[in-house]
């Protein structure tokens, strides 16, 4: 997946992964992809819900051991 920007949210607890994702998405234009790395298990549901409510698309999600990776396309 070709991401325009990578956000390291590892070690952050809710709601910080969402706060940092929102800030990072502001720097992107519609259609660009943000890759997020998080370790908070709640991020799976939180980021999916946040993306949907903000008009963005959760393109892909992967678990790599302790690290959860998400790719969100800006709407």
Question: What is the fold's blueprint, element by element?
Answer:
Blueprint: E1 5-9, H1 16-25, E2 33-38, H2 43-53, E3 57-64, E4 67-73
Parallel strand pairs: 1-2
Antiparallel strand pairs: 2-4, 3-4
Organism: Anoxybacillus andreesenii
InterPro entries: TusA-like, TusA-like_sf
Domain UPF0033: 7-31
Structural commentary:
The protein contains 2 helices and 4 strands; from the N terminus they run βαβαββ. 23% of the residues are buried. The protein has helices at residues 16-25, 43-53, and strands at 5-9, 33-38, 57-64, 67-73. It is α+β, with helices and mostly antiparallel strands and 75 residues long. 28% of the residues lie in helices and 35% in strands. Strands 1-2-4-3 form a 4-stranded mixed beta sheet, with helices on one face. The chain has a single domain (5-73), classed as TusA-like domain (Translation Initiation Factor IF3), CATH 3.30.110.40.
The CATH H-level homologous superfamily: TusA-like domain
Secondary-structure-based class equals alpha+beta
CATH second-level architecture: 2-Layer Sandwich
Give me the strand/helix succession: EHEHEE
Count the DSSP helices. 2
Strand content: 25-35%
Please tell me how large the radius of gyration is. Answer: 11 Å
Helix share bin: 25-40%
Approximate shape? globular
User: What is the CATH fold-level name?
Assistant: Translation Initiation Factor IF3
Q: Main sheet? A: 4 strands, mixed
Count of domains: 1
| Low-confidence parts | none
Number of separate strands: 4
Mean pLDDT: 96
CATH structural class: Alpha Beta
Head-to-tail CA distance between termini: 17 Å
Q: Main sheet: which strands, in order across?
A: 1-2-4-3
Domain UPF0033: 7-31
Family: Belongs to the sulfur carrier protein TusA family.
Pfam family, one: TusA
Protein name: TusA-related sulfurtransferase
């Amino acid at each position: 997946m070709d991401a325009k920007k990578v956000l390291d949210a590892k070690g952050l607890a809710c709601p910080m992964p969402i706060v940092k994702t929102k800030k990072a998405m502001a720097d992107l234009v519609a259609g660009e992809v943000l890759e997020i790395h998080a370790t908070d298990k709640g991020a799976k549901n939180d980021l999916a819900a946040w993306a949907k409510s903000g008009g963005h698309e959760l393109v892909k999600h992967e678990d790599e051991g302790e690290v959860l990776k998400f790719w969100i396309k800006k709407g």
